[in-house]
Amino acid sequence: MIKLSYDINDYRKNLLGLVEDGDTVIELGCHVGGTTRLLADRCRVIALDNSPEAIGEMAKLDVEFISGDVRLHDVIANVFEITQSCDVLAIDLGGGYHPDTVFKVFYIWSSTFKPKHAAIRNRGLLEFVNSASVSGEDISSNEGYLESYHDSGIPPQIKEFDLWTSSLKK
Ligand SMILES: C[S@@+](CC[C@H](N)C(=O)[O-])C[C@H]1O[C@@H](n2cnc3c(N)ncnc32)[C@H](O)[C@@H]1O
User: Fold this and answer.
1) pTM
2) For the domain 2-130+142-168, what is the CATH superfamily, name and number?
């Protein structure tokens, strides 16, 4: 199941409703752990953020924290060394963050770790979904990733990020 929201309280409620005790959760955009705290005693949490503010605060929690940019191939590869799958993928890069980037991050991380469920916080994606008039074709997923692309494999490098986002260049 994929749950999409903008309000942070809805995001947390969605996420807590998806996780089960003992689950492995990958959390992208944990900031200082406001949501992580709600999961840490129930789940194995692998949390990521690229903000310097996150480092000290996340060290106080009993979770695996990685300081890095979740758009980068090396960062995904780093997590893939820790786990090859997860039960729940949570993505909050900031509610107003570019929806195209958030969708790409969702697509690449969910294709890689094949979560049962995903919770995403993003206003633009929610606006798109709520505004689109859709055809009657039965194309949907019961998983936390897109089943249509289940066998497509993982892009070896996220080349498109270099094409679209100049701030990504090292
Ligand atoms: C709204 S905050 C997350 C709040 C958190 N989910 C919570 O519930 O308290 C968004 C976070 O996403 C992080 N972020 C944005 N883009 C990122 C990226 N490309 N890689 C890693 N973290 C990113 C920011 O550093 C920020 O800490």
Assistant:
1) 0.93
2) Vaccinia Virus protein VP39 (3.40.50.150)
d(CA 27, ligand 1 centre) in Å: 10
Closest CA to 25 of 63, 71, 66, 78: 63
Task: State how far the Cα of 21 lies from the Cα of 23, in Å rounded to an integer.
Answer: 6
Ligand 1 pocket residue status of 104, Cβ below 6 Å: no
Task: Note the pLDDT tens digit of each residue in 37-73.
Answer: 999 999 999 999 999 999 999 999 999 999 999 998 8
pLDDT digits (tens, 9 = 90+) for 110-167: 988 999 999 999 999 999 999 999 999 999 999 999 998 776 656 555 566 665 555 5
- Domain ranges across the chain: 2-130+142-168
**Ligand 1 pocket, 49 CB below 6 A?**
yes
Distance (Å) from CA 115 to ligand 1 centroid: 20
Query: Strand 117-121's sheet: what is its strand order?
Result: 2-5, 117-121, 88-91, 24-28, 44-49, 64-67
CA of 134 to the centre of ligand 1 (A): 31
